[in-house]
Design goal:
The chain is of the alpha+beta class. The protein has a domain of about 190 residues. The strands form 5 sheets. Strands 2-3-7-8 form a 4-stranded antiparallel β-sheet. Strands 6-10-9 form a 3-stranded antiparallel β-sheet. Strands 12-14-13 form a 3-stranded antiparallel β-sheet. The protein is globular and about 60 Å long. The two termini are about 35 Å apart. It holds the Pfam family RepA_C.
């Protein structure tokens, strides 16, 4: 599947989008679209994500409202615990942890704006509406409802990153703790006004200071056009940001076995045989959206090769 993405990429580069569509296999047409849009993007618009969120990720599907989410990748462990919100009747309600593609898009937006403005305070007004339009997301209806739910989950949950250090160096693990990703804000209004009035996003968000400090130290650049093409797939977004972080740090060919991939990305799949074909389909989309990525798929593992980042880092 990754090989198909590479073949599609070459077709687009050599022949252009329209001819590539006629030459490509019918099953690869979605990859042609992704590769064409990303390769044809001249806006230079960037997104950013904290490196810890490139190695670990949120759930793909909705967990129980009282369930914590724990993922461990190498020395890094991410723990997300659900928070509570007081409802109109005065009773606290568990909100559950954030999940799915929309939660990832909200986090990417918040992190991107924080990096670009070098400020913990992020606007949810016009800039977010414009960003959503670039992604092709409607402001109202079901999208608005989903964004509200995921925003509340992000705002109320607690998140902790734990980095296990070598005992010979410190004798104990180190931990960065964020009791909240969001210090305040991110509760979208319930108004029904139209996009011009901007009733959905008239708010400002203050990021947690620890999270913001780590984001400033370890921002991973992403291509806005790639995010736009992958916006509906939590799995493809996860793989894309992972590759964006990993590939340009490599100095040699690096194989990764299916068991490790299942542990990192397969939280929604109990069995490896269920996970593998879905991962390969999402990997193909991620590679199509990352033209510089060099990834090979073999029977027992995938192979990552040193590759340029999808977009240049901050100076």
């Amino acid at each position: 599947m990754a090989d198909a993405a590479k073949g599609v990429r070459q077709l687009v580069l050599l022949h252009g989008r329209e001819q590539a569509r006629t030459l490509a296999d019918p099953s690869d047409q979605s990859l042609v679209k992704i590769a064409s849009e990303v390769l044809g993007d001249e806006s230079g618009q960037k997104g950013y994500s904290y490196s810890g969120l490139c190695l670990t990720s949120l759930p793909h599907r909705k967990p129980g409202d009282d369930e914590a989410w724990i993922r461990t990748v190498g020395p890094l462990t991410l723990i997300i615990e659900p928070g509570r919100i007081v409802m109109g009747d005065g009773q606290p309600k568990l909100m559950g942890v954030p999940f799915g593609a929309r939660a990832r898009l909200i986090l990417i937006y918040l992190q991107t704006q924080a990096v670009l403005t070098d400020s913990r305070e992020v606007s949810l007004g016009r800039s977010m509406r414009e960003w959503m339009k670039r992604l092709g997301l409607a402001v109202g209806g079901e999208t608005a409802s989903t964004l509200r739910e995921q925003a509340r989950r992000i705002a109320t949950c607690s998140m902790r990153f734990s980095w296990q250090t070598e005992p010979s160096k410190s004798g104990r693990p180190t931990m960065m703790t964020n009791e909240r990703i969001i210090k305040s804000g991110l509760f979208f209004q319930e108004g029904t006004g139209d996009d011009r009035q901007g009733s959905l996003f008239e708010d400002r968000v203050l990021l947690d200071s620890d999270f913001f400090d780590q984001l400033r130290r370890h921002p991973v650049p992403l291509q806005d056009a790639a995010i736009r093409q992958l916006k509906d797939s939590a799995a493809a977004l996860d793989i894309y940001v992972w590759l964006a972080y990993r590939l340009h740090h490599l100095n040699k060919r690096t194989p990764i076995g299916w068991k490790d991939l299942h542990q990192q990305f397969g939280g929604s799949y109990k069995n490896l045989f269920q996970f593998k074909p879905r991962f390969l389909a999402s990997l193909a989309e991620a590679v199509a959206a990352y033209p510089e990525a060099r990834v090979d798929v073999e029977d027992t593992h995938i192979v990552l090769h040193p590759s340029p980042p999808p977009i240049r880092k901050l100076a």
